Amino acid sequence: MTATVIDGKAFAAKVRAKVAEEVTRVKAAGVTPGLAVVLVGEDPASAVYVRNKGKQTVEVGMESIEHKLPADTSEADLLALIAQLNADPAVHGILCQLPVPDHIDADKVLAAIAPAKDVDGFHISNVGLLATGQKAMVPCTPLGCLMMLRDHHGSLSGMSAVVLGRSNIVGKPMAQLLLGDSCTVTIAHSRTKDLADVVRGADIVVAAVGRPEMVPGDWIKPGATVIDVGINRIEDGVKEDGTPRRRLVGDCHYDSCAAVAGAITPVPGGVGPMTIACLLANTLTACCRANGLEEPA
Ligand code: NDP
């Protein structure tokens, strides 16, 4: 069997086009959705993410407000900025790019963001709302995964799903979303015994581990759907100038998994592009809720 490739890049473009359409509607009602992104320090990967987020925010017609703070910014100053953004009616979504420098308590920062503006969905109120099946701001990466799964399968009801990884930003909310769609969910992690057998039982495998190509094809049940969240940069040979050649791989070994799975997301071009598209969708939703406008479907 050769798996259907779930094209996250194309899907994300569709989501952004839909958001752009809705932004036009919202603007006609007199409101411009605004997303504030706060970056503390000079982590190069974070700087790239923030740049992409800003660019795509503007492309869909929203206002992008970027706050780049030096690495030695105090926790108190960061919290003061967040309080200011919470109170600003032109700001509908606030995101503080993680990781923050060690001297800042990330949990404190996330707790300070007004839940209604928490477009990353990491505030404990949104975590609780999601866990109890109420209207929440849903974390962008798992939301993107769910959208691709629903698009591919229609109903997920009754399917068995294994989520590899139990982080607060991917694994746990992913499991909640799958449970909300009536999957039978197993969350696996570094202490899980007989991991291969656990994965082999799943109709849906979501891998969010951060270990390059950890899941081989012979762990995958024939015909299963594989959603690969992992983004790992590995060295792969050397370039002509003698420097290492690098490429991105997921947490799943793509070729062997694609040979067995029914459908699979590639890395890059799978989950990654969906994450920012969902951030824009969440910002639009937050803006509609704040202004009593009809929410996008
Ligand atoms: P974390 O490091 O926070 O969590 C990793 C999880 O994997 C942990 O729960 C850990 O278990 C588990 N794990 C580690 N090793 C093993 C193992 N050998 N067997 C089984 N489970 C294991 O990572 P994140 O959730 O933040 O990210 C996961 C991956 O997803 C990374 O590659 C990251 O780059 C990527 N990512 C991609 C995004 C995108 O937009 N596409 C967005 C966010 C993340 P334990 O809890 O027991 O330690």
UniProtKB/TrEMBL annotation:
<comment type="subunit">
    <text>Homodimer.</text>
</comment>
<dbReference type="InterPro" id="IPR020630">
    <property type="entry name" value="THF_DH/CycHdrlase_cat_dom"/>
</dbReference>
<protein>
    <recommendedName>
        <fullName>Bifunctional protein FolD</fullName>
        <ecNumber>1.5.1.5</ecNumber>
        <ecNumber>3.5.4.9</ecNumber>
    </recommendedName>
</protein>
<keyword id="KW-0560">Oxidoreductase</keyword>
<feature type="binding site">
    <location>
        <begin position="165"/>
        <end position="167"/>
    </location>
    <ligand>
        <name>NADP(+)</name>
    </ligand>
</feature>
<dbReference type="InterPro" id="IPR000672">
    <property type="entry name" value="THF_DH/CycHdrlase"/>
</dbReference>
<keyword id="KW-0658">Purine biosynthesis</keyword>
<keyword id="KW-0521">NADP</keyword>
<keyword id="KW-0511">Multifunctional enzyme</keyword>
<feature type="domain" description="Tetrahydrofolate dehydrogenase/cyclohydrolase NAD(P)-binding">
    <location>
        <begin position="139"/>
        <end position="289"/>
    </location>
</feature>
<comment type="pathway">
    <text>One-carbon metabolism; tetrahydrofolate interconversion.</text>
</comment>
<dbReference type="Pfam" id="PF02882">
    <property type="entry name" value="THF_DHG_CYH_C"/>
</dbReference>
<comment type="function">
    <text>Catalyzes the oxidation of 5,10-methylenetetrahydrofolate to 5,10-methenyltetrahydrofolate and then the hydrolysis of 5,10-methenyltetrahydrofolate to 10-formyltetrahydrofolate.</text>
</comment>
<keyword id="KW-0368">Histidine biosynthesis</keyword>
<dbReference type="InterPro" id="IPR046346">
    <property type="entry name" value="Aminoacid_DH-like_N_sf"/>
</dbReference>
<dbReference type="Pfam" id="PF00763">
    <property type="entry name" value="THF_DHG_CYH"/>
</dbReference>
<dbReference type="InterPro" id="IPR020631">
    <property type="entry name" value="THF_DH/CycHdrlase_NAD-bd_dom"/>
</dbReference>
<dbReference type="InterPro" id="IPR036291">
    <property type="entry name" value="NAD(P)-bd_dom_sf"/>
</dbReference>
<dbReference type="InterPro" id="IPR020867">
    <property type="entry name" value="THF_DH/CycHdrlase_CS"/>
</dbReference>
<keyword id="KW-0486">Methionine biosynthesis</keyword>
<keyword id="KW-0028">Amino-acid biosynthesis</keyword>
<feature type="domain" description="Tetrahydrofolate dehydrogenase/cyclohydrolase catalytic">
    <location>
        <begin position="6"/>
        <end position="120"/>
    </location>
</feature>
<feature type="binding site">
    <location>
        <position position="231"/>
    </location>
    <ligand>
        <name>NADP(+)</name>
    </ligand>
</feature>
<keyword id="KW-0378">Hydrolase</keyword>
<keyword id="KW-0554">One-carbon metabolism</keyword>
<comment type="similarity">
    <text>Belongs to the tetrahydrofolate dehydrogenase/cyclohydrolase family.</text>
</comment>
